[in-house]
Amino acid sequence: HPPFNPPMPWFGIDVGGTLVKLVYFEPQEVLPEDAAEEVEQTKVILKYLTSNKTYGDTGIRDVHLEMKGVPIDHHTGTLHFIRFPSSAMEKFIHLAKAKGLSSLNTTVCATGGGAFAYEKYIRQEMKLELNKFDELESLISGIHYIEQHHPEESYYFENPLNDETCRKVPHSIRDLYPYLVVNIGSGVSVMLVESRTKFRRVWGTSIGGGTFLGLCCLLTGCETFEEGIALAAKGDHRNVDKLVRDIYGGDYSRFDLPGDTVASSFGQMLDPEWRKNAKPEDLARAVLVTVTNNIGSLAMMCAMNAKVDKVVFLGNFLRVNSVSMKQLSYAMDFWSKGKCKALFMEHEGYFGAVGCLLEYMN
Ligand code: ADP
């Protein structure tokens, strides 16, 4: 098709239930057909975005995820990855306006529920053209694009529960169809991907990253995701959960259930003595293990039902959360008797934002 060149700057934005993910494409070279005015204004915005790593109180650029030398349309450039809480969306709109974004003849590509919720606001306040895209379509096309342009994007864990021998092993998912994608955001969606263009949503659950964060705040008094994860990393869920061995005195061998399997999440908390002894870090760990195992067993059922043996876990719940990634790796391997593999991707929560930008370009 003839080159389609919407005015720069090019943004993709995914306004989720908890976090806004923003990707910005910085062109490497100025192409002759680009209008001069557009180039100047792009420079101003670029300078602001790339000379900072944080924006306002809550905006953060994930510098370690930056992708250089990638093609979009007939341009080559750098993709920048920025996130901030969805609760700061109005502040962001004012900031973008103040930085002159609304004076540009720019189109914003948006996905996620917030693309609908903030539609009027973006059009009227910012005077921007808004192109909305479906979040799951965007997610899948973002996965394909990033996988293609970032060599060590996807990986699995070898010996996940052994601190000494555990290691990340690169493992490309290119043309590995069929596989499942389990996106763990505020809630969880499970997709069956059968080819580059064929996928469907097969399941979901409301018990996701938002559940971990919400319950963790309630039970421990923590205020942020990072705090909750740090607490959980220090805690022991066995001070909160009832295990098979607490009931059987050992393994339940008739059905191959090891003694340290959780029989009842939070099951010890009915006892006042146990309740008194459970520390905030133990409670945080127990919430993390409960949510993670629930997602793991759901993923397992979906994989068996669809007869696939590869499951790709994504979403910002996995950010700085190696406890859950290792737990999922171990659980998938153990419960499938080595048949099913858990895979992960470096760009965790950004696939939807990248995908909606691409869908516009196509
Ligand atoms: P959504 O599109 O629903 O916002 P995300 O993929 O962005 O989904 O994941 C949101 C989840 O990521 C939160 O529920 C929380 O568990 C986790 N998370 C990771 N980092 C943060 C953070 N800095 N602030 C809030 N939640 C975070």
Description:
It is found in: Cytoplasm. One of its GO terms (molecular function) is pantothenate kinase activity. Its EC number is 2.7.1.33. The protein has 362 residues and is of the alpha+beta class. It has three domains: 10-140 and 351-361, 2-Layer Sandwich (Nucleotidyltransferase, domain 5); 154-229 and 281-345, 2-Layer Sandwich (Nucleotidyltransferase, domain 5), CATH 3.30.420.40; 241-277, no CATH class. The chain contains twelve helices and 17 strands. It has helices spanning 36-50, 89-98, 113-117, 119-125, 135-149, 209-220, 225-234, 244-248, 272-277, 280-306, 322-335, 351-361, and strands at 10-15, 19-27, 54-55, 59-61, 67-72, 75-85, 107-111, 129-132, 154-158, 167-170, 179-184, 188-193, 199-205, 242-243, 262-264, 310-314, 341-345. The strands form three sheets. Strands 1, 2, 3, 4, 5, 6, 7 and 8 form an eight-stranded mixed β-sheet that branches. Helix 5 packs across helix 12 (351-361), helix 7 packs across helix 10 and helix 10 crosses helix 11 (322-335). The longest helix has 27 residues, at 280-306. The radius of gyration is 22 Å and the shape is globular. The mean pLDDT is 91. The structure holds adenosine-5'-diphosphate (ADP). Adenosine-5'-diphosphate binds at residues 16-19, 112, 185-186, 209-210, 212-213, 225, 315-317, 319, 349.
